[in-house]
Each structure stands twice: as structure tokens, then as C-alpha cells.
Amino acid sequence: MATFAQPQTLVRPASSSSSESGLWSWLTTIDHKRIGILYGVSAIVFLFIGGLEAMLIRLQLARPENDLLSLDTYNSVFTMHGTTMIFLAVMPASTAWFNYLVPLQIGARDVAFPRLNALSFWLLLAGALILNLSFLAGAAPNAGWYGYAPLTEVLVGQTDTFNTGRNIEFWALGLQVLGISSLAASFNMIVTIFNLRAPGMTLMRMPIFTWATLITSILMVLAFPAITVALVLLQLDRFLGTHFYIPSQYVNGELTLTGGDPLLWQHLFWIFGHPEVYILILPAFGIVSEIIPVFSRKPLFGYAVMVYALAAIAFLGFGVWVHHMFTTGLGPTPTAIFAATTMLIAIPTGVKIFNWVGTMWGGQIRFSTPMLFAVGLVSQFTIGGISGVMHSSAPVDTQQNDSYFVVAHFHYVLFGGSIFALIAAVYFWFPKITGKMLDERLGKIHFWWTFLSFNAAFFPMHFLGLEGMPRRYASYGDGSGWWFWNVVVSIGSFALAASFVLLVYNIAKTLRSKERAPEDPWDAATLEWTTPSPPPVYNYKVIPTITNRDQFWADKYGTGQDHEEEADLEVRIGGMKIGSVDTEDENPEDQAATRRQNAQSGDSQSLGNIEEDEHIHMPNPSFYPLVVAIGLFLVAFGMIYSYPRLEIERLSLPVLSLFGLVVMLVGIAGWSLEPASDPEPDHDESVPLGTSSHA
Amino acid sequence: MATTALEVQRAGGGTTHGDSGHGGSSHPPTSTGIDSKKLLMWWFLGSECVLFGSLIATFMIYRNRAQDLSVNLQGIEGSGLAVSSGPFPNQVLDQLYTAVSAGVLLFSSFTMVLAVASVGRGNIKAFRVWTLATAMLGAIFLAGQYFEYTEFFHEGLSIQQNIFGASFFTLTGVHGMHVFVGVIWLTMLSIVSFRGGISKKDHTNVEVAGLYWHFIDIVWIVLFTLVYLLPYRDGAESAEEHTEGAMRLVQSLPFF
């Protein structure tokens, strides 16, 4: 797996990506495609766990004054439903696609720091484990995924005030570990996209999904430190008796007014939390922007504006956090300012919706399953987006705050947006990953089942919210009149959960079948479809040279034809021309001729040719990322279960954490001393891998 | 397909990869010409800006709060609540002492530059001297911080004592941990160099450590200004100060 010294033996490379299997190869893998698969499988597992929690919530609310779950259990279940779905299902699913697709889309052989990439995944698993082990300890997090102070606080020496169990420790330390995982993954993706692009791939020739990855990663890099600080302060409050988030605390045995402010938590949390919302949705936008052009057989309408819109959403996303706090009484000035910035975000988002419609307009649309889910996003996300614009108005928000209307809103954007797109991506790229096509007939049934049950589960929540049903409550009264819609919602959500069983059945059935998919089954435009399915470990025998935005279409159909077609293409609404496509400054005939010439002469720069004596040199597998992740897991876990302790004078340290620290340092030392790849002086310098960095 | 003029220009040059710009560098060429590790460090530092920004914001919100509470709410009889008491910043902070240790840390940026420059010239002996000097100056700064903390503990300011203590120790403590990591990193680099593991081609590795070190120095310039130089309001020493303090609170309401 490490070194491919003999390219001649790689005539049939499709099998070589699975040339090494078995548990050890997966534990030590640093191949971005395998790590992507690990991320994807974990995301599906946690999607089911989060879904199970949702089902418990819906069982509880299926009839008034139900006592199926105790009040404490209900708190834990809805806290873990939110935390799991956001941090362990949707984010890892997005990261799975970042990992699998981005190096392929930019014509690279791996990410910039393959071992750091493995560490990101193992830390995700460590954080997920900490969060979910809390159930076994009977101390599942119980303060909501937003963890508002003082619900999360303790008073020093008091055993019955606020949140004195270990619930919040599991939550806070789990999130800290997940934060490190996300930061590491984001640094890696940013550097990969800036530095490992194939020759000729300028930023504005990158596939739009790669752009979405880049912008999302920048968001993560700039948003996560805020929650890191917020959680550190929370842990200091809980472990050391500071009072950042509570106005009073026991100081020297006396209850003292200290001036701590619960609103500080809300500010820090939402400075992270609102960009987080865009971290969840921008990858979905990227996926849909890849799928719609392919199934409309037209280039993406307004590519440049789509890129600017992504950047604008990300930029504005840092300036709207106070709209989560309209009812906290910050006063008219901040409320008005943040209402205005929130409304501004509707502009770039609207641009994206219209550009997807513009892409489909006049196209030869094929409604295959990926396209159905992509169009599903365009319609369902719009509903959620519009209720979001409603909330941007502070008076309206005050009415709807903490009601089921808000629950309906964010499920329309997160399920109708993110998850629809992530399912679309599964159907779209499954043949690339496995070499097999998912069953189209089952896929179409799956789409309509999901679409209908999704609306049954979440649309009535709008009515419930407007009728005043509060969110987060474990029960509601008999005479409230909310029973009917709650029953509809519960039936809808059970049907929705069943739709995922259908998806998994489809995947299992397809994996067992012998039928192989063609390498480019959808006639797609981006580079990953030029590779065999599944792609070999090294992705490209020869790094492709990029001359066009939709490179693979240009290779298949030529740019000249494209331009003739596009020059004719005008977008008209009501007879008025609202847009057309420019022709290129260069002579497209020259380019096409050069490429044809290259192909005939077997020039090494043209796609898919082997230069006879090129050595493809891939980095070695490594288990040090796993060691470091285990070490960090033990450090965090030792802080939750802080006994036995080591007493050194006035310091008292948990032994497990210290042991974890040692494991971590051993891992880091091994990591930095281990050569990233076998020394091979002849060719090491010549291959533009960019993977030999020691990070 | 719409292509901007900029792209057409860059398209021709797209196939030529820039080197990282240092003679003798063995790193693979990258699309931007910037070494991947260096780019990673720049983005890491961007992330650190948000980390310190959040901590600084927290500190700025709370820097006068303990004093103001003590002045305005002292003597609430029968509430069962005590009110935040000192030591307050004006009683404990020693500007001159910290100015000296800040000077030490700033000077270490100078030695760091010399270390990076000497490895660039291939002068490994000079590199060892300057790297160790940088690490030593960082360690002196940390020792200074240790004695400062000890002094504060003796005067009764702990992390629990009041919200000034909480935000002061958190902010300067996180910075101190960053200095500690930097000292360890530089020490490791010099150990590796004694074993012959550093040559001219490691210029980028040293430069990345330098970027980190300079960033930590710059953060301290900001912290020194906000924590030590910017004036604080006084807390109440005794009951007589109430009225005066109340006036000061009214004047300072926007900060409260």
C-alpha cells in the first residue's frame, strides 16, 4: 500500500485500494478515501442513535401528560438528540465528503497532512465515545445542546444546587475533544485546497463543492475557538469554583455576590453557534451545486456569484449571533442592528436558490435519485429559510421564541437542507466509492417516502408553535388542544425514521450485488469521475492538468461546442432576457486542438496516461494518530472520573489524566520521529505529492 | 463558461509551481508557493486570534466588575449575601515588575529572528545559541509569572476570590501555557540540533516555530496593555468609600 514502484503492474488499479484489508489496515490508514469512509460510517451510526433519541421524544409527546420518560430522562434525551445530530451525524457526514472528494476534485493524491487527517477521525470517535458513555454512567448531558448557564452550573460545596452530577462534564469534555477534531480537520482541508491543486486549477476553476469545503473549513477555524473558551470557562466554574456564568458563588464558605453573568455564556456560545449553523448547511449547498448541473446537463449558472454567495454567507454568519438572544433584553439598538444583519443573509442565500433554478432552467433534466433529493433541498430549505427570515424580525421572534415554530424552522433547514443533500450525495457518489450503483427504483421510493414523512413530521410543528406549544417541555396538558398535531408529528417522524432503514437496506443490497457500475455513470463534470471506481490509493497515475472549470465535460465534449451551446443560451423570464453566458477571451479551438494533440502523442500531462518510469510514492500507514487520540480520550475521561487522584503538595491531579498525557506524549514523539514515507532519493523530489510534511 | 480576465491570465502560469522561496528547500512544490506547514501555522494563528479574542473580551467585561460591586452593594443588610471583596487590581498589580518581564519576552522575539536567520544561512552553531537564548528568555518570563502568581496568592487573590481574579488568572494563564509550549518546542529544536538533526533545509520548520513565538509575543503586548496599563477603578476598602464609588459607577455605566 505504501509504495508503487512499478507502474506497469497497475494496469488494473481498481482493486488496489482494497489491496490491504483487515482491522489493522483500517486502524492505521491515512488514505483520505478510507478516512472519508470511516467518517461516513460513523455518521450513519450516530444518525441512528440520534434518531432513536428523536423517537423517544416523539413517543413521549404522542399523548398529553405522558409519563413514558421521566422529566430528567427527557432532558437528557433531547439534549443528546441535538448534540448527536449536530456534532456526530451531520458534521462528520459533511467531513466524510470533504475527505473523500476534495483531493480527488482538485487532482491531488491525498490531503496535505494525512496523519493529522487520521487524528481528526480518531478524535471524533473519542469525543463521540465520551458523549455517549454518559448514558452508561447514568449521567447523560441534560442542559440542552446550547448548555445555557446557569443550567450547567454548580455552587461550590452544595450537593443539591443546579447541575451537580457528571452530566455536564461528559458534555463539555466531549465537545472539547470534538472541537480539536474539527479544528485539525479544517486546517488540513484549508491547506490541502490552497496548496495541492493540480496544475492549471486556479481558485475560480475549483469545483463548487471544493469551494464549499474551503469556506466551511474557514468557518470552523474561526468559530470553534469561541466555544473552546466558553467551555473552558464553564469547566473552571465547575472544577475550580470561579463564577464566570453565575452571579453568586460560595467564596471562602460564604455565598457571595460576584458579578458573573449568564449572558456571557450565551454570547460566547452563539458566536460559535451561529457560524456552526452555516458549517452544517454550506457543505450541503456545495453538494447540491455539484448535482444539479450534472442532471440538468448545463454548467452551474453563475458560478462566480455562487462562490461569492458562499463567502458572503460565511462572513455575515459571524455578525448575527444576537438574533438567538432577542428575548434576553439587550435593548433596542443591538436588537435592531442584529435584526438587520440577519435579514442581509437572506440575500446571498436567495442568490443561491435562484442560481440553482437558473441552472435547471432550459436544461435537459433527468430526475434520478440524487437529483430528486437535490431539488428536494431547494424546495424544503426554502421553507426553512423563509421562516428564518420571519425570525429575523425581533418582534416576530419574541412571539415565536422557544416555541415549536422554531423547532419546525431549524428542522426544515437542517433536515430539509443538510440531510437531504447528504442523502443526495450518497446516491450520487456511491458508484464512485464502491463501483456499484444504488438501486434507482428503491431510491425513488426512498425519496418520496422521505419527502412526505419529513413534511408530516415537521410541518405541523409550525401550527403547534403558533398555537403556543413551548419547545423542550416534557409534557403538555390534556386540554391544550395540541394532541392532534402531536400525533401527526409522531407518526410522521416514525415513518421518517423508517425511511433510513430503507436507505441502509438499499446500500446493503447493492454491496452484495455483483453488477458493476461504469466509471462515469452520470456523465459528470468533475475530475473524480475520471478515476476508476473505486479510485486507487494514489488517485491519479498522472496529475491532471486543468484548463477548464468543468474539466471532464471539456475533455468529453470539447470547449468549442460548449461555447456554441452556451452562447445561444439565454435565460428569459416572461420574455425578458435576464442573463446569458459570456464567451471566453481565448480561442477555444486552439485549446481543444492542443488537448487532442496531447492525447494523441501520449503526453504525460493529458488525463489518464502513464509516464513510464514515474514512481508514485504514497505516505506510510501510521498508528500514532490513534495513540494520540487514545491519550487525549484518557485525559478527558480522567477529568470526568477524577478519582483516584495524585496529591503533590497543594496540587491534586487525576491519575487517569496523567496516564493519558503520557500516552499522548509518547504518540506525539513517535509521530514526529516516524518518517512520513520511505526514503527514496531517486524520485522523492519529483512527484508533487505535497504529502511528505511531518505534521 | 464565464471566465474572468484574471483567471485567463493566471491560467497560463498555473502549471508552474513556485518553490517555497528558500534556497535548498526540499519541500514539494505547492500551488501557492507557500510551504504547507507554514500555511497551516498561519491558519492556526488565525484560530488563536479568536481564542484570545474571546478571552480578552471576557476579561474586558469583568475587569472592573468586582470593584464596582464592592463599592455599590456593600452593606446590603439581611440579604444573606456577601459582596465580592478584594484584593482588587490596583492593590496587587505591579506595572514595573511586569514591564521588565514583558521586556524579556519582547527581547526573545529578537533572538528568535536571529535563530531563524542563522539556520537560513546554515550556521547551526549560531542557531543553537539563539534558540536556547529564546527558550531561556521564555523560561525567565514564565518564572516571572510564577512569582507574580505566588505573590498574588499571598495577598489573597485566588482564582475563586473575585471575578477579577478569575478573569486575570484565566487570561494570563492561557497565555502562559502558550509560552510554555513554545519553550518546550524551542528546547526540542535545540536538542535535535545537538544530535545533528538540523540543517539548512529545516529552515521552514524553524520559521514555523518562529511564527508561533512571535504571535505569542504580540499577544502579550495586547495583554500587557489591557491588563496592566489600562487604569482600573478602585474597590471599596471600607464603608466610607460608598458614595464616591457610586458616583464613579454612574460615570462608568457603559462599561458595566
What number is the mean pLDDT of chain A? Answer: 86
Our count of domains of chain A comes out at 2
The CATH topology of chain B turns out to be Four Helix Bundle (Hemerythrin (Met), subunit A)
Order of helices and strands of chain B: HHHEHHHHHH
Based on CA inertia axes, which overall geometry of chain A fits?
globular
Percent strand of chain A: under 5%
CATH superfamily of chain B: Cytochrome c oxidase, subunit III, four-helix bundle
Mean pLDDT of chain B: 83
CATH class of chain B: Mainly Alpha
Approximate strand percentage of chain B? under 5%
Gap from first CA to last CA of chain B: 56 Å
The end-to-end distance of chain A, rounded to whole angstroms, is 20 Å
CATH architecture of the largest domain in chain A: Up-down Bundle
**Order of strands in the sheet with the most strands of chain A?**
1-6
Largest interface, counted by CB within 8 Å of the partner chain's CB: A-B, 78 and 59 residues
Total beta-strand segments of chain A:
8
Please outline what is shown here:
The complex is a heterodimer of chains A (695) and B (256). Chain A has helices at residues 23-27, 32-60, 71-105, 114-136, 167-195, 208-240, 262-296, 303-317, 332-360, 369-392, 394-400, 404-434, 440-466, 483-512, 551-557, 559-568, 588-601, 624-640, 655-673, and strands spanning 3-4, 248-251, 254-257, 570-573, 576-580, 616-617, 645-648, 651-654.
